[in-house]
Amino acid sequence: MTHLPPQEESNRLANQIAEDNIHSVVINMEHAAFDQGLAQNLADHLDAPCYTLSELKAETLYQAVREEMAAKKNA
Fold first, then answer.
1. H or E element, residue 70
2. Beta pairing partners, 52
3. CA distance 74 to 57
4. HSE, side-chain direction, 13 A CA sphere, residue 61
5. pTM above threshold 0.85
6. What is the dihedral of CA 13, 38, 2, 14, to 10 degrees?
7. How far is CA 53 from CA 8, 17, 25, in A?
8. Which tens digit of pLDDT belongs to each residue from 7-38?
């Protein structure tokens, strides 16, 4: 979108989203063996939680969504 390197641009956009108090959740789709930390970095700039796929098994997905929705209501 701009002349900035992609990582820098995404960090700036994520910071703006966080400043606008838009509640976000990041799901790390990278395989653990090849994880470069990009999802966690994005989550840090969004001031958002970062979940891995292994954390979002059927039994925990429902609870994670409920917690995030409750956090949004309390924000």
1. helix 58-74
2. 28
3. 25
4. 6
5. no
6. 0
7. 25, 23, 13
8. 999 999 999 999 999 989 999 988 888 889 99
Residue at 28: amino acid letter: N
Comparing C-alpha atoms, which of 37, 52, 45 is closest to residue 8?
A: 45
Nearest partner of 26 among 44, 2, 3, judged by Cα: 44
41 and 33 in contact (C-beta within 8 Å)?
A: no
Do residues 21 and 72 touch, judged by C-beta distance below 8 A? Answer: no
> How far is C-alpha 68 from the geometric centre of its chain's CA atoms?
12
How many Cβ atoms from other residues are within 10 Å of residue 43's Cβ?
19
Per the CB < 8 A criterion, the answer to whether 14 and 40 are in contact is no
Both tokens assigned to 1 = 């979108």
Note the residue count of the chain.
75
Percentage of the chain with pLDDT > 90?
Answer: 49
